Amino acid sequence: MIAGRSAALRSWFLALVFLEMLLACGSACRAGTQDSTATTPPPRPATPSARSGEEQDRFELGIGAVQGFFDVTGSFAYRRFLNERGPFERSAMGELTGTTKSQLSEGIVSLYVFFRPIATYRQSWRIRPLIEFGPGVHTVVQVASLEGFNRSSYKAKLYVKSHAYAGFEVLATKRLGFLVRGRMSAPSHHPFDYAQAAILLR
């Protein structure tokens, strides 16, 4: 008798489980049909620029202590704001740098794309943290004066690197500011890292 009741209870339990599975499958099928017929919203485009003129672009005139053979480098750059997409603002920059030591001189032409987290600063701030990263393409030209031969040797190479920057900006006026930052690069087969101070002309 007890065995019969146990078998009956098991049968009722299995029937309930099977019924719940059928109901769950029916709900999932209906949800899938609704999702497939729903209109998918178009992808969010990049936020168009709504910045004032001094926030759109700027020139940077800087000097820095570099890692490697050279001691100090000078730089001149033009930076342009592109857009905001997701959690980042994107900018492009072209830069000329030059340095010399002993009989060796080096000049670099660089192009960058930067990604800066929007949440790290506000445009209304006069002192802004600077945290950004991105790829850079560098054309490096080295000129070596051969001592005793009255002639020079030239060498040029192309490098593609990833860079990360950290520092801060100080905006003295709408048109003038100052920048202090450090840079780390990868790979490290040619040292590009520096600590830099620059004047911003916006």
Automatic annotation (TrEMBL):
Residues 32-54 are annotated as: Disordered. It comes from the Bacteria. This is Uncharacterized protein. It comes from Eiseniibacteriota bacterium.
